[in-house]
Amino acid sequence: MTEHEDSAPGARRNHAAPVLDETAKRIIEQLQEDGRRSYAAIGKAVGLSEAAVRQRVQRLLETGVVQVVGVTDPMMLGFSRQAMIGVRCNGDLNRVADEVAGLDGCEYVVITAGSFDLLVEVVAEDDERLLGILGAIRAVPDVVGTESFLYLKLRKQTYAWGTR
C-alpha cells in the first residue's frame, strides 16, 4: 500500500504495506460486508474475543488499511452531478495529484497509466458547481488538458471485494 502523507480521513499515508495475517483479512472482510457489525459478532466469525477484535480493528484504522464510513448515494443527498475527469499533465504527477486532491469536490484522485495521467471523481450539486470544479482543476499548474465523463445513473457502488 503506497500512501500519501496527509492524515485526513480517506487520505493515504507513505508507509510500507502492513503484513496482514489471515485473521486480519477475515476481520476486514467482515467489515466490508457490514461496517457496523459489532466486535463481538466479528470475533465469533473469526475466532477471537471482542477485545482482541477491537485492538486489531484499531490497528487497521491507525495504519490506514481500513476506514469505516457511511457510503451514500450522492443523488439522494442533492448532488445531482457526478463525473469522472481524465486529466493530462506535464511535470511532477505527485504534486499535481496532491493539489487536485485538495480541491473541494474532488473525491477520488488516482495517478494512472494510459491516456490520462490522473482520474478524478467529482461530486457536485449542479452543473454550475461542476463547471467551477473543472475550472479549478484546469487552473492547477502543469494540467494541460481534461476530458469529462458525466455519470447518468449509479448502478453499482460496493467496496466488498474481499482481501484475496
In short:
The protein is 33% helix and 18% strand.
List keywords for this structure.
164 residues; alpha+beta; four-stranded antiparallel sheet; 5 helices; disordered N terminus
Largest sheet: 4 strands, antiparallel
Strand content: 15-25%
Total strand count, please? Answer: 4
**What order do the helices and strands follow?**
HHHEHEEHE
Helix-strand layout with pairing:
Elements lengths: L21 H12 L5 H8 L3 H13 L18 E9 L3 H9 L4 E6 L6 E7 L2 H12 L4 E8 L14
Antiparallel strand pairs: 1-3, 1-4, 2-3
Helix pairs in contact: 1-2, 2-3
Description:
The protein is α+β, with helices and mostly antiparallel strands and 164 residues long. The protein is 33% helix and 18% strand. The protein has a four-stranded antiparallel beta sheet, covered by helices on one side. The chain is elongated, with a radius of gyration of 18 Å. It starts with 21 loop residues before the first helix and ends in a 14-residue tail after the last strand. 17% of the residues are buried.
